[in-house]
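Data availability (excerpt). The following record was deposited with the supplementary files.
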Amino acid sequence: MTILLDGERLTLADLERVARDGAPVGLDPAARPKVRAARAVIEAALTDERKIYGVSTGFGPLSDVFIGGADRDALQANLLRSHALGTGNPLGEAETRATMLLRANVLAKGYSGVRPEVIELLCELLNRRIHPVIPERGSVGASGDLAPLAHLSLVLIGEGEAVCDGERLPGAEALRRAGLAPLTLKAKEGLALINGTCGLTAIGALAYARSARLLTLADVASTMTLEALRGSFVPFDPRLQAVRPHPGQIATAENLRRLLQDSEINVSHKDCGKIQDSYTLRCIPQVHGGVRDALAFVEAVLARELNAATDNPLVFPEGRDVLSGGNFHGHPVAVALDLLAVALAGLCGFVERRIERLVNPQLSELPPFLIEASGLNSGFMMAQISAAALAAEARVLASPASVQSIPTTGNKEDFVSMGWFAAVKAAQVADRLATILALEFLCAAQGLDFLRPLRAGRGPQAAYECLRRVVPHIAQDRSLRPDLDRVLSLLEDGTVLAGVVAAVGPLA
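Predicted structure:
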């Protein structure tokens, strides 16, 4: 089904469908009158020789320079050329597609003053899988993602570079192969294309969506570890959650109770005499729940930003006004994405501590490093070391970007958001979390092997059986890297979570 863009209804699920699954997009016919009305205001202002930032003036500290006549169209192409100075490797395909989608959606909202043709060409590039080459560095998140969006936008005028059928081509050649004609930008259109938070929001939204799935998987992994360590279910009692009613804590405890239904392992140690478990087992609702609450805030910020008008100046056709403001500033999103990185980094450390309890015989009552004939075999010793290294990296990446302003553009832009880097860092922390979780799944499955024939609760048992179909028990040392890669694939493609949900029903 085609996703129609009007700047009002785009969802995070839509963004993933376009970015990852290639869903087709188009300009909603109902949005066309709004787009045309805003363009009419710009055209009238040009006729009246009004002085409007970026339309009949230069940019940044050059905003006092008046631009007249035919030079106004040339000004827009020059803006793209001069600002396309990103560095580093290209963005991934999903992040590039998400950025293109958000730029089209912002323009479709009808406050940017562009012609419908600009939006339609962005949609055609997405639908024909023509992906501009966007360098991964160079944005300070105000006036939005200028350098990345300039690289994106050059392809619309037949310049820059794009990837087509896996081949990196000049922008003009990519358009020719797709049967598309380059645009000749009109006044305001170049500025509308590059001014705004679409890049940082796109990267952050994809990182958030992945993180939300990883958090649910963390609940599953925690129950496998809890069962392997013969932990208590008492801390998940709903009465405990009710008297400290944080939504994330309540939801996490509900997940754990659902996952742990019908556990034979729990029944087997009912009268063991232990009073309390360690924090990494007893406080799963509180720690995972705190992360869940943080992600709920991040989701709300991103959901608003997906449909926000973030360029400058903005056109309000009702009063025929063109207003200069600061909606391009990435700070609201940067703060949220910094929080995402902090929350995920804390979870990385929490999961790593569970891995330590699994492999350490002083803490686990399991064979040393989860291997028979330990000493001759080192077993899962390196699993904890690798997790520790990744958790340490995550803590460094959790340092906030949004406090790192460096004035730019002749001190006209004297406080910037660094939101692009906040988004990139959050995605990098999610990468570390995915690997640490895969290591926990590996270790916990090995731990459960030693408790057979007892079965874990429905959820951890389903996850265990899913893993064991592709990763066998380790009886003597072998390289764990291929096993880790297989588990990561099962986590990322949804196989593990689908198997668990089939066994226990939907999870929060």
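Summary of structural features: The chain has two domains: 3-196, 204-310+325-504.
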